[in-house]
């Protein structure tokens, strides 16, 4: 075994697909790219995610307690990266990147029409926000686009490198 740089450990453990997180505050919608998230419970579905205090979306999420996690397929990767490389402080990202906001059923934040899944969320626990910018979200409504069968997701590997969702294997398990 060789030493591995601690600054690159996250590249080994990056858990899930890169997603878009939308918020809405004072009538203004925003969308950001996020890859630091994980499932923490099945029922109800709880998702933990890091939204940095440096991100424009942090304040809206903290103040409204609502967001949407939209899951893009690989064909949206260039837009997803461009969204992540810009700030909602000075860019109206939905129009700048050609995304279509759709009304959600349970929260004020918009769905993203181009994504194959959208999860409407409410903040369930914010006790770790002051120290770690970690929000625990409860998914209160979920949507999927049947017009995008078997979409491939992108997974951040660090420094502009992504893996694309690959072959699916089924191995019997007692887990749901």
UniProtKB/TrEMBL annotation:
GO molecular function, one term: oxidoreductase activity, acting on the CH-NH group of donors, NAD or NADP as acceptor
Domain Flavin reductase like, residue spans: 12-161
Family matches, as Pfam families: Flavin_Reduct (PF01613)
InterPro entries per UniProt: Flavin_Rdtase-like_dom (IPR002563), Flavoredoxin (IPR052174), Split_barrel_FMN-bd (IPR012349)
Keyword Flavoprotein in record: yes
Keyword Flavoprotein (UniProt): yes
Superkingdom of the organism of origin: Bacteria
Cofactor: FMN
Keyword terms, alphabetized: Flavoprotein
Family the entry assigns: Belongs to the flavoredoxin family.
Name assigned to this protein: Flavin reductase family protein
Species, as recorded: Propylenella binzhouense
Taxonomic lineage from the root: Bacteria, Pseudomonadati, Pseudomonadota, Alphaproteobacteria, Hyphomicrobiales
């Amino acid at each position: 075994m060789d030493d591995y740089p601690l600054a690159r450990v996250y590249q080994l453990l990056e858990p899930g697909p890169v997603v878009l997180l939308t918020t809405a505050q004072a009538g203004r919608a925003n969308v950001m790219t996020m890859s630091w998230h994980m499932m923490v419970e099945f029922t109800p579905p709880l998702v933990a995610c890091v939204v940095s205090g440096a991100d424009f979306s942090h304040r809206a999420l903290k103040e409204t307690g609502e967001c949407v996690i939209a899951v893009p397929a690989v064909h949206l990767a260039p837009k997803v990266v461009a969204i992540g490389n810009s700030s909602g402080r000075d860019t109206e990202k939905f129009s700048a990147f050609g995304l279509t906001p759709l009304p959600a059923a349970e929260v004020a934040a918009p769905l993203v029409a181009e994504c194959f899944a959208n999860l409407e969320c409410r903040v369930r626990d914010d006790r770790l926000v002051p120290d770690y910018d970690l929000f625990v979200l409860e998914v209160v409504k979920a949507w999927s686009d049947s017009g995008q069968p078997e979409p491939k997701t992108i997974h951040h590997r660090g420094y502009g490198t992504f893996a694309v969702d690959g072959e699916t294997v089924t191995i019997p398990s007692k887990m749901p």
